[in-house]
Amino acid sequence: MKVNAKSYPHPVLGNEDDLAGFFKVEFHYELGKEAIVLNPTFSIKNNGIEELLKKEKASFVAEVECGNTFYRKSFLTRKQLERFSIPAVALRDRVTVGFYVCADQDMKGYRPSELHPDYGEAVFDVEAGDVIAVGGYCSFIAEKAFDPLRPPVASFISIIEGTRHEDPIQVDYDSDKITIVLSKSDWKKYLEVRGQKPAEGIIHGSIVFPVLVDAVHKVQKDDGEYGERNWFARIEAIMVAKGLSDKDPVEVAQKILENPASRSLQGIDTLLNVSNEQVYE
Fold first, then answer.
1. CA nearest 124: which of 133, 111, 113?
2. Residue 14 placed within a domain
3. What is the rounded CA–CA span in Å between residue 126 and residue 128?
4. 146 contacts 155 by C-beta, under 8 angstroms
5. CATH number at residue 131
6. Do both 200 and 259 map to the same domain?
7. pLDDT tens string 87-126
8. Dmax over Cα atoms in the chain, in whole Å?
9. Model confidence at 55, in pLDDT bands (50, 70, 90)?
10. Fewer Cβ in 10 A, N or C end of the chain?
């Protein structure tokens, strides 16, 4: 879960060290033909805000936004485990979900418990709808055919023919898929072996793997340059689903491609054996 530090007019749990305690969210989702179901589990530790939730003066909030369909809606609950259902047609491609605790009513003289000493004796006025705790945000791909635990490489990388006859591969990250551009000469050779099982591992090891290592590095760096691209969200979803978010990019790329070096060597061995059999016929 990512958290961006912001400037609020009052202390907010989860925003740097404004308050002691924590607000965490474990998020799962289900992609169905008719509906997409969000399953957040909220965990919070701060006596003051917990008391506001119990007294129904605040609610947990999941704010869902999809730039492709312009869908935006906030779901409120006071339950720590909840299910929110959204029509499947309302979401497409990348969906972002932010998690908050928001005030349900105006509160004059608000002074949350476990406040950072820098605030001294200050009190604050909070209005209904204001954020009083932030749990970060995450994103997922609203596409039933995409399974982050068994992701097809073609869902985030494509290989195409370039315009030059002889040239090293080029990589374009500015499209919905990462695009690997081969020279016309290399493209012709690629077409001859594409689809052959022994060649798949070799292609992944020699062409796709180094590009994916670089892409994983860009996802982990997350400087905002490619965050809106579909390939970025897909790779991010794969890393989260497989528990690879904090791993080295080389390790991550190997896990996603299922050990491309081993498969590449196996493919070479198979091709050499076939070649030797033909020689001795």
1. 111
2. no
3. 7
4. yes
5. 2.60.40.10
6. yes
7. 999 998 889 999 999 999 999 999 988 999 999 999 999 9
8. 91
9. very high
10. C
